[in-house]
Specification:
Blueprint: E1 7-18, E2 22-30, E3 33-40, H1 41-47, E4 54-59
Antiparallel strand pairs: 1-2, 1-4, 2-3
C-alpha cells in the first residue's frame, strides 16, 4: 500500500466497539500508548477488524490542537 500521509503509526487492535453507525477502534501503539479511531461500521466489516490485528493508524490532518488543563 502506498499512501501520501507521513504520519503512520503501527500497532495492534485492542478493542472494536460498535455504535449504531460508527465504531471506535482502539489501537495499542506501544506498551501503555494507545490511539482511538472512529470509523464506520462498514469500514470495520470491509477490513475485518478484530482484536489482535496488526494495523497502521494513518493520520492526515491540517490542524492539530493542544490543550492544557489550568
Amino acid at each position: 500500500m502506498k499512501i501520501s500521509a507521513r504520519n503512520q503509526l503501527r500497532g495492534t487492535v485492542v478493542d472494536v466497539i460498535r455504535g449504531q453507525t460508527t465504531a471506535h477502534v482502539r489501537i495499542e501503539l506501544s506498551a501503555g500508548s494507545y490511539i482511538t479511531s472512529s470509523i464506520t461500521n462498514e469500514a470495520v466489516d470491509e477490513l475485518k477488524l478484530v482484536p489482535g490485528d496488526l494495523v497502521v493508524a494513518i493520520i492526515k490532518a491540517s490542524d492539530v490542537m493542544v490543550g492544557k488543563s489550568v
